[in-house]
């Protein structure tokens, strides 16, 4: 499948998932329960019950968004119809990103089932996965871009072509022009 067609298919799939989430009625109604120790703080109630209707839609939406990001990145990094040396690190980065997103969803489902689960690096598991795993992963894509910029995005031949366009062309037919009198322009 060609990359622009893949981008269009992913955008359509994202739109269908959003439409399905809206059509399904969305999340359950929030419950405003008073916190037992801090009366001014409200609790949302049973998170598993509220998020169950849209959990699959949310998982699909996130996975499709990551794939769309990867396809957009690939569109900008390709030369002709090839990704060249960028292909392997891009696939590895996307698989890591999708895997970390899957781990986040797994951690969220576990946390909903047992909110008293032990903390990971001082945070509940889904928050720890988000902060320490998912959040820094886009830096992999910045590294891919920086690592392959000189040899794949803009190489020496392209730099020379731009410099040649920037040099003034010598005009052999015209005689040198004498500078104008500065007082004459006033």
Radius of gyration over all CA atoms, rounded: 27 Å
Provide the structure class. mainly alpha
> What's the arrangement of strands in the largest beta sheet?
1-2
- Uncertain regions spanning at least 5 consecutive residues: none
Q: How large is the share of residues in beta strands? A: under 5%
Give the count of helical stretches. Answer: 7
User: What is the count of β-strands?
Assistant: 2
Q: How many separate structural domains?
A: 1
How far apart, in Å, are the first and last alpha carbons?
A: 65 Å
Percentage of residues in helical conformation: 55-70%
- Chain-averaged pLDDT: 84
Shape: elongated
Order of helices and strands: HEEHHHHHH
Largest sheet: 2 strands, antiparallel
Put the structure in a nutshell.
The protein is an all-alpha fold and 186 residues long. It has helices at 3-23, 47-51, 55-77, 87-113, 125-134, 138-153, 156-166, and strands at residues 33-34, 42-43.
Indicate the topology:
Layout: H1 3-23, E1 33-34, E2 42-43, H2 47-51, H3 55-77, H4 87-113, H5 125-134, H6 138-153, H7 156-166
Antiparallel strand pairs: 1-2
Helix pairs in contact: 1-3, 3-4, 4-5, 4-6
């Amino acid at each position: 499948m060609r990359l622009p067609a893949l981008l269009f298919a992913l955008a359509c799939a994202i739109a269908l998932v959003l439409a399905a989430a809206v059509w399904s009625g969305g999340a359950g109604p929030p419950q405003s329960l008073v916190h037992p120790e801090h009366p001014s703080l409200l609790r949302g109630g049973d998170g598993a019950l509220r998020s169950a209707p849209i959990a699959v839609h949310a998982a699909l939406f996130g996975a499709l968004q990551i794939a769309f990001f990867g396809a957009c990145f690939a569109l900008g990094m390709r030369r002709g119809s090839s990704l060249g040396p960028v292909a392997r690190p891009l696939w590895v980065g996307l698989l890591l990103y999708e895997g970390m997103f899957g781990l986040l969803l797994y951690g969220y489902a576990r946390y909903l089932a047992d909110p008293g689960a032990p903390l990971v690096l001082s945070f509940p598991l889904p928050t720890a996965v988000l902060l320490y795993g998912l959040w820094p992963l886009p830096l992999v894509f910045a590294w891919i871009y920086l690592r392959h910029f000189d040899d794949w995005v803009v190489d020496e031949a392209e730099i020379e072509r731009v410099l040649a366009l920037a040099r003034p062309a010598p005009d052999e037919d015209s005689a040198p022009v004498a500078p104008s009198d500065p007082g004459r322009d006033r």
